[in-house]
User: Fold these one by one.
Assistant:
Number 1:
Amino acid sequence: MKVHAVQLDQVWEDKEANYEKAAQLVADAGVSPGDLIVLPETFPTCFSMNVSLTTADEPGKTEAFLTNLARQHEAWVISGMTIPSDSIEKGRNVSVTFSPEGERIGSYAKTHPAAIYGEHESYDAGDEVIIFPLGGFTACPFICYDLRFPEIFRIGTQKGANLFTVIANWPAVRIEHWITLLRARAIENLAYVVGVNRTGNDPSLEYCGRSIIVDPYGEILADAGEAETVISAELNLSALEEWRKKFPVLEHAREDFAPGS
């Protein structure tokens, strides 16, 4: 399966502009039926704490765009967006997944809102690690700050994940952490990791992209650099399975050292 990581210079709080940008970048990327398209965190609006704006007309408006994108390219689509929460005046920062037929097959709510930016005051945390079948792989989605918490990735692996997606608005000031942690999550879980960041600026933060696709050895298969672009790489399921058999480190984990034991 081929994956396409869409690194956008997102337009602040402008859904229509971001739909248009993404559609054009994907159209130029040479997507084939059965491929996977991945868009950044909070794709339609950027990392905005203006919940009334980000969740307006959601999830319907953005889901309609993503459904059409999936059907048009007959591809899987993973994207960030924000939706209303059960809490009054709060939302949820989610990663949603659509099948090539345009059916929504998974929705994951960020378990670790970035408190350093006050995200927890605007968006409620999720409380479940999810997995789902995707093009022969078993996918597990995470969002930005989640990357700093390896225990949730191991939960995903224990559930059967071999492909992680991490969508983000990760600031340039800590970009080396982003790259190092994505590679670490791939190495320690013997899994593919697709990290999709934004580039450009919002009113408060600078972003420098560096979306990368990492194989189970921790090798970077594709690196977007700092430009607005799409990077692509082929994911080899049989090679991943062979590596897990050859180097069965996951079977050697000490369950008696698990958190809470």
Number 2:
Amino acid sequence: MTKEKTEQLRTLDHKEMGKRIRKRREAKGLSRENLAERLSVSPQFIADIEYGNKGISIKRLYWLCQILDVTSDYILAGNVYSQDEDEDAVKVCEEIMGLLQRCDARQLEGIRGIAEIYADSMRIK
């Protein structure tokens, strides 16, 4: 790898990674104990990961992504979308995600219905 390429690489921020795991765990309604049981680890290990004090094996990261229904790219780097996507589209998606995070389940169901109607109407055109 060239020096230019390595200068572009980001470092892994364990504390931010832990925050994303905790946020997603809570959004899925899982306690640390529930998640620990599913990953075959202790609740303290989950706490250590969430506080950024410990890392996680690839095998458990793979399981964690399945349990939390997220990509490893999201867990590791916070990327919700591919870096190769159009920057304007990514910005709009991030703004929409911010708005959606403020909604409760009932509101999200309504928004999904609106989005389906809109997407269907755009396919027809």
